[in-house]
Amino acid sequence: MLVEQTSIFLENKVGRLAEVTKSLADNEINIKALSLADTSEFGILRLILSAPAKARQALKDHGFTVGSAQVVAVEVPHAPGGLHTIVQLMGETSINIEYMYGFPFMGDNAVMIFRFDQPDAAVNLLKEKNFRILTHDEVYG
Fold first, then answer.
1. For each of the chain's 141 residues, which pLDDT tens digit applies?
2. Taking a C-beta distance cutoff of 8 angstroms, is the pair 112, 72 a contact?
3. Is residue 115 a contact partner of residue 98, using CB atoms and an 8 Å limit?
4. Which terminus of the chain has fewer CB atoms gathered within 10 Å of its CB, N or C?
5. H or E element, residue 7
6. Could you tell me the domains of the chain?
C-alpha cells in the first residue's frame, strides 16, 4: 500500500523548475501532488507522478539528480482535528513523520502524503484505526 514518490534535487536558480516541468510534459507524465522545499542553494522537489519510472529516466536523461521513495497516501477527514488524530497517533507509538504534504480533496476527505521512518508499522496502525490507505492507482484515479 505504499506509493512511489519521485524526488529531484534542483539548483535554486531561475528556470530550473521549468526544465523539470517541460521534461515531464514532453514525456506526457502528469503530476498529481508535489512539494517543494528549498534552501538558498538548492531545493528538493517531491512528486507523485503518473509514470514514476518513465519520469525518473526522462529526468536523468536531462541531467537531473533523481531519487525515489516509498510514501503513504492517507485519506484524512477534512474537519478540525482530522490531521491531528494521525499526528498524535504516530507520536504515541514512536513512529516519526519525516515529512508530509497534501493534495486536493477526495469528497469529504483530504489526502495527505506521509514519509514515515517505519512505513509498514505506520500503515498497519492506520489500518487498525480504520484510516483508508490509498494505492498509486487510487491516488492517480
1. 799 999 999 998 899 999 999 999 999 999 999 999 988 888 999 999 999 999 999 999 999 999 999 999 999 988 899 999 999 999 999 999 999 999 876 678 899 999 999 999 999 999 999 999 999 888 886
2. no
3. yes
4. C
5. strand 3-11
6. 3-69 (3.30.2130.10), 71-140 (3.30.2130.10)
